[in-house]
Fold this protein.
Amino acid sequence: MANDARQKATSSAQANARVQLTAIDQARVPSVTDMVYDALYHRIVELQLRPGTKMSEAEVASQLGVSRQPVRDAFYRLSQQGFLLIRPQRATTVTPISVSAVHEARFIRTALEMETLRAAMMNMTDAGIARLEANMAAQKAAIANDDRTEFHELDDALHEILCEIAGHPKVWAIIKDNKAHMDRVRYLSLGKGSQQAYDDHCAIMETVKAGDLDAASTQMRFHLERIGHIIEDIRAEHGEFFEQEDQRGA
């Protein structure tokens, strides 16, 4: 009986014990893998690492001054996004642009951003408008300076701000991962397309400030689907960046 009482007391104490956890740091410092991934991602998107470029874990690790493990992890993440082709015992290579992957990415992005825009307009405040207008001013300056990289980043930032205003900041991470295949095509188009993209943003902003959801939705859809209308022209001009199978099937 005494043993039973002790066991029940022990079980009760265990059940009532509180788990002690350390508070999570919300502003997490990027890991080495994150930094390696970001460095490679931007070089691939900006076509500094062209399709067909051979990649070596050892070489990348040496150039970045890190161990091979974070490079291996970054390679895997990029391969999951379709940017790298990893073949055991053979060289890892940067993949060419797939037209079908671009169209799929456009579909996913459009579906998510249309709902995000609706939510953002429901939550819009003067402070939100001010954030968007500040971004637009920076875009205009980037065009004046012919800075494609800066414009590309500001373009993304505008859409990310809308996700934040909508109250769904995590949606941007999903959009970013799924639009990866669009980004190389977008970058190829920015030489003459930056002004066009900026004009689209201006049209969206006017309808957002007017509080006209239907008009804003129409402008946003037109903007996001533009890449589907210009991809064939871009492929004709820059065929070396695209999958050969896509070219034969055109």
About this structure: The two ends are 84 Å apart (CA to CA). The first strand starts at residue 54 and ends at 55. DSSP finds eleven helices and three strands in the chain. Confidence is low (pLDDT under 50) at residues 246-250.
